[in-house]
Structure formats: C-alpha cells, structure tokens
Amino acid sequence: MDETPTQEVQQHPETGALTRRIMGVETEFGITCMDGEVRRLRPDEIAKYLFRPVVDKYSSSNIFIPNASRLYLDVGSHPEYATAECDSLTQLINYEKAGDRIADRMAVDAEATLKREGIGGQVYLFKNNVDSIGNSYGCHENYLVRREVSLKALGRRLMPFLITRQLISGAGMIHHPNPMAKGEGFPLGYCISQRADHVWEGVSSATTRSRPIINTRDEPHADSHRYRRLHVIVGDANMAEPTIALKVGSTLLVLEMIEAEVGLPDMELANDIESIREISRDLTGRVPLKLKDGTTRSALEIQQIVLEHARRWVDQRVETATADGTVLGTSNEEMARVVDLWGRTLEAIDTQDFSQVDQEIDWVIKKKLLDRYQTRGALELNDPRLAQIDLTYHDIRPGRGLFSVLENRGLITRWTTDEAIAHAVDHAPETTRAHLRGQILKAADKLGAPVTVDWMRHKVNRPEPQVVELGDPFSPVSAEVDQLIAYMHAHADTYRS
Q1: In 3D, which of 295, 298, 261 has the Cα closest to residue 163?
Q2: Spatial separation of the C-alpha atoms in residues 262 and 143, rounded to whole Å
Q3: 4, 17, 192, 403: most buried by Cβ count inside 10 Å?
Q4: Looking at residue 234, what DSSP letter applies?
C-alpha cells in the first residue's frame, strides 16, 4: 500500500457531511458507419477500426489513457469512456466533455483508415441512450461515500430524488412504440428521459440483467475499509454542460444533506418503476405519485421540496479548503449556480414557460427544436425526419451534430470553456489520485516501459515487477509513485533493447 500519509476527508464540522467528494462519469457511445443512407459496416466491425490504433499500441482494447481516464470497448460494441477521478463539479464536466473529443479523434482516424482501404463511409458516434430497436446503453455516475454509510439506507433516501431528477436533467426523446422493445405499452409521444423505460429495479447488484436505478456491487476502487462507491445508472447521457452540472451538482447536494440529516422528509414512492415511467411522459411534472405512506405527491412537488432544503443547505455549507484558503472540491459559489438553475428549471416546468432554460436543459432544448421543425413542416410526430433530428442532436462529431451546430451559434449556454476541455483531453486532474496515474502513464509512454494499471494498482512489469497501490483517491502525491517513476528511468535502457 502507498505509505504516503493519507489526506483526511474534510467534513462539515457540525454535521459530518462530505463537502469534497470523488466522483466520475462513464459514457457509452452508440456507433454506426454510413455512406449516405447505406450502412457500410456493422457496429462490431466499425468498433474494430475505431480501436485498431489502441490495440496496435497496447495489445488491448481496454486501457487507461494519458489523462488518467479509462477507454474501452464495452459489451455490444459500445466505445466507453470513464472519466478519471474528479473532486469538483466543473472539473468533472471538463473531463466528461473531454471524452467526446477523444472519441471524435478516434472516429477521424478510423475514417482515414476506411478511406485508405477502399471502404469509405462516415463514422457516427451518438451520446444518447437508446437505439432504433429499443436497446439501451448507459451513462453511469459514481460518487464516493464513507464505508460506514449503508448503501441500502442511502438508496432508500435517494430514490425519490433520483426518480424525479429526470425533470431537471433528462435528455428527451420521441418514444416510438416498438414491439421489440421492453418499454412497449406506451403510445407515441415525447418523453423527458431516455433511460426511464429501461430500468427495472430500484436497488440491485446487477447492471445489465435487471438495470437498477442504483447498483450496489461493492467495488470501491479505493481503500475498502474507508470508502464505498455509489454507482447510479439511471441518468441520461447529456450534451449541454449546464444539464450535466445540474444532474451531478444536485445529486452532490442531496448526498450532503442526507449525510447531514438536515430533515429531508420521507417521500419514498410506493412503486419506483411505475413512477419513473409515468414521470417521463408528463411534461408538466404534475402526475400524482403514490407514496408508501398512502399520500400522493407529484414529481414537481418532490423536486421543489428537495430544492428548498438545498437552498438552506448551501447557506450553511462549509467548504473544504487548504490552510491558505484554496477551496478543494465544489465551491459554495458553484453550488449556488446549481441551485439557481435548479430553481429556474422547476419554475419553467411549473409555469410551462421554458424560455428561461431553453438553452440549458437538454430535454427542453431538443423539444423546442423538434417543435419548430414539426410546425414548419406540418409533420406528424412519427415522421422519420423528426426521428432523424432527435438522433442527430446527440451526434458528437463537431459541425455535424445538431447540438454542436446550436452551440457554435451561441444557442446553448456554456458552463465551462473549450480551453479547459482541451487541457483535460491530455492532462490528468491535478487534485486527485488521477494525477499520479497520469504521471506513471506519461513516463511509461516516454520510456517505453511496460506497465499495467487500474484504478488502484499500478505496476511496472520489468525488469523486476514493482507495484504501488493507491487506496486514497483524494491524494495527488505519493513518494512511492515517485520511486516507481525513478525505477522506470533507471531501467530505460532495458526497455529499448
């Protein structure tokens, strides 16, 4: 184990709530290769072209890359990018959006290879959650919690918030009835969430078999005596930076409030899965939901109650800071931005006047876009042209996807900057354990040293195996990692031979 002294997780002095928390996002991309309207290659075939340079260099399609994030080919031929460990909201958004740029680089290289080999075609990468025949792929969130926290109890407290969170962070989609899809039974219509029809349990250790809202598999990727990992798999993949900020930032605040026992009322729903489907199809947020105590509340009411507690919490929230006053984690100023957007989004739903958030919230942005095309062309909702717009919104390729076109025209509000995202593409976060992994990977790449790394374990394979385990995800310093890198430099000649 790393013998460098671990950083104590600073907590609210009165409540014990974590106000600095390690987190990450995993994104699976939809993929296809087209030449005009002709499909050139199957997803598994184009995935091989996409990952060919990776396999050629690393002899694997599952690697950690220089910014300390994980890149791999997941089940179903989905390229997947898992951000490095982040400890603040904007930092996480930078690394999540960096994944889009890394995937785009891979697609550009794949298209060049296809052209050289006489196959041709364009590679499409979609940051969404549902394909045309009803298969779903995920966008998962990970939040560090203390080991003494019971995930079962935490999940029960979180569930009403997570089920109704789609109101403020859904990606939106036109639901087309499909007898091949599990979500069949609902009519044609616009939905707030893409994932709502594809979860089947509240809390479970499964991921693909039953798709729970919260996955309880105990893989902390940290010192298991101190930490757990809360794995949330119900969220939609988001394009707009403010929507990502609201999805993650609101969840951070709710976790802090649960830990602080600030008096969030018990709003446990009688039927989680029935409720999540009903909410997705109710753009007013007013459908009555049955609670386990026999009362009813709407999704809008649940979110409004949680928001009011969050407003009061931000007023008393104590930031985590160093001795010189540098804020670690997400600042109160940034949390205030989250609360402001949260409030404006709920007000928009309440009044049905979405003009104040129609450049910030994905499902609202997309609905406005679809409504405009539908009205202009006098189209039925099931018109294939609207389905194409629905899908193309999620195309991550710059200048081609509708989202990027809107953003370039200033019609999407930004939360971060292009410069910050570009930096995150090639550099690891500097405030977490990921910084150490990035140092190891860059040294190994420069020297040609054979290394094997995962979230915790970092190994130089020869001449004699050297292993460092990093159990503290908060710490960006380690004397053992310094020694490991020195070992690589000392044996650089053996790697060239």
Answers
A1: 298
A2: 20
A3: 192
A4: -
Q: Which of 74, 87, 197, 236 is catalytic?
A: 74
- Is 74 an annotated catalytic residue? yes
CATH number of 23-423: 3.30.590
List Cβ<8 Å contacts ≥24 apart for 181-189: 181/133, 181/134, 182/134, 183/134, 183/277, 186/277, 186/281, 188/381, 188/382, 189/281, 189/381
Would you list the domain boundaries of the chain?
23-423, 433-496
What the block records as the tokens of 185 is: 């039974």
Residue 206 has pLDDT above 70, yes or no: no
Report pLDDT digits (tens) over 228-285: 999 999 999 999 999 999 999 999 999 999 999 988 999 999 999 999 999 999 999 9
Q: What are the residues facing 290 on neighbouring strands?
A: 296
Question: What mean pLDDT comes out for the span 62-83?
Answer: 94
CA 302, CA 166: separation in Å to the nearest integer? 12
CB atoms within 10 A of CB 299: 28
- Residue 146 CA to residue 137 CA, distance in Å, equals 29
**Position of tokens 């053996």?**
494
d(CA 278, CA 172): 14
Distance in angstroms (rounded) separating the CA atoms of residues 47 and 32: 9
What tokens appear for 80 in the block?
């997947």
With 60 as the cut, is the pLDDT of residue 124 above it? yes
How many of the other CB atoms lie within 10 Å of CB of 134? Answer: 16
CB distance 6 to 475 below 8 Å: yes
Burial (CB < 10 A; 0-12, 13-18, 19+), residue 387, is middle
